[in-house]
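Hi R.,

As promised on Friday, here is the backbone we talked about, encoded as structure tokens. Could you run it through your design pipeline when you get a chance and send me back a sequence?
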């Protein structure tokens, strides 16, 4: 059932990035399906698929047990990892010594030995334990499900664990929190590779938000939940309708008839970040959309996105994306397959 990697395409032929999903025993079926659902829906302007997604196990092709009452038939062995531009490791509840001691099993270590240098690595939820046990997260920022974050940090003290975020993008290694955060991370990767328009189309097809605000803190159960009828929804909607204008914290608080202090606390509880951080996130997203979809000058994009000046927008995009506005526009208006190529890019003929 396993197949050989495709040959290089002919000159001018469209190319696809290969994503290989590593299915481990005890895997969660929902998380196993996330990469296919998100990357498999990504298409270019001509409707051609931008990724090829294949699934492999650490053994020869065959059945892999899940945490449900069924197994999945996986058609590729570990050698498929050598063909990947991106490898995704979903969560598993049967990691054994990986979870208990922070050590890879010989079988898993042999499978990961197939990885080529430069392959982009992605984990969903407790899949990060595998990357950490392999030493691939040492000295790096990473996250996992908030329920496991303390154990994860104790087991892997060299990893800089951030339990408050939905995912961490550290360039060639990316980790996500639990379950639905895997969707957020995969949509983010599509956006990083192919721009906002393609990512938004994937999100619409999948009926998920193209970008979720905040982090895991909003999902952590508190011992004594505070009853609260008021929310900050109206203030956020009000702000989104006037991102090009100066917006003060007191202006947003007035929309909910709250004091600035109460509004700030309530906002952080609901969204997971401060109002100022949220506004910056929304303005970065607006700038990305305008840079991709319009011919407005950089100065005008900066004004329309609410940054005021091109210099201010440049600083914020550089901090958020690692690129300048001009470089971002050049990448995503030129039809380039990715602003962030990896490995030999795991590219395959469409």
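Update: got your reply. Pasting your designed sequence below so it's all in one thread:
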């Amino acid at each position: 059932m396993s197949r050989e990697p495709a040959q290089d395409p002919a000159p001018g032929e469209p190319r696809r990035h290969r994503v290989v999903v590593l299915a481990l025993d005890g895997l969660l079926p929902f998380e196993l399906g996330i990469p296919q659902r998100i990357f498999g829906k990504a298409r270019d302007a001509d409707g051609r698929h931008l990724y090829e997604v294949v699934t492999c196990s650490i053994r020869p092709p065959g059945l892999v047990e899940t945490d449900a009452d069924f197994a999945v038939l996986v058609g590729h062995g570990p050698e498929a990892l050598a063909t990947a531009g991106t490898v995704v490791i979903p969560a598993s509840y049967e990691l054994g010594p990986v979870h208990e001691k922070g050590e890879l099993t010989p079988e898993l270590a042999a499978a990961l030995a197939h990885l080529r240098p430069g392959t982009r690595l992605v984990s969903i939820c407790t899949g990060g334990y595998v990357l950490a046990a392999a030493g691939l997260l040492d000295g790096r920022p990473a996250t996992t499900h908030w329920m496991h974050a303390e154990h994860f940090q104790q087991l892997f003290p060299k990893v800089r664990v951030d339990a408050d975020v939905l995912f961490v993008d550290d360039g060639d290694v990316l980790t996500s929190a639990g379950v639905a955060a895997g969707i957020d991370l995969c949509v983010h990767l599509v956006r990083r590779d192919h721009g906002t328009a393609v990512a938004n189309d994937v999100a619409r097809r999948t009926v998920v938000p193209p970008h979720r605000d905040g982090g895991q803190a909003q999902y952590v159960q508190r011992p004594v939940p505070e009853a609260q009828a008021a929310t900050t929804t109206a203030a956020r909607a009000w702000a989104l309708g006037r991102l090009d204008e100066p917006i003060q914290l007191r202006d947003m608080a007035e929309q909910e008839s709250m004091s600035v202090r109460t509004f700030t606390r309530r906002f952080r509880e609901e969204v997971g970040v401060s109002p100022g951080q949220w506004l910056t996130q929304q303005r970065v997203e607006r700038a990305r959309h305008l840079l991709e979809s319009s011919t407005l000058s950089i100065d005008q994009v900066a004004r329309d996105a609410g940054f005021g000046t091109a210099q201010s927008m440049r600083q914020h995009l550089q901090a958020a994306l690692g690129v300048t506005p001009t470089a971002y526009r050049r990448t995503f208006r030129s039809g380039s397959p990715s602003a962030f190529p990896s490995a030999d890019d795991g590219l395959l003929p469409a």
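One thing I noticed while checking it: Residues 1-13, 217-228, 335-345 have pLDDT under 50 and may be disordered.

Thanks again,
M.
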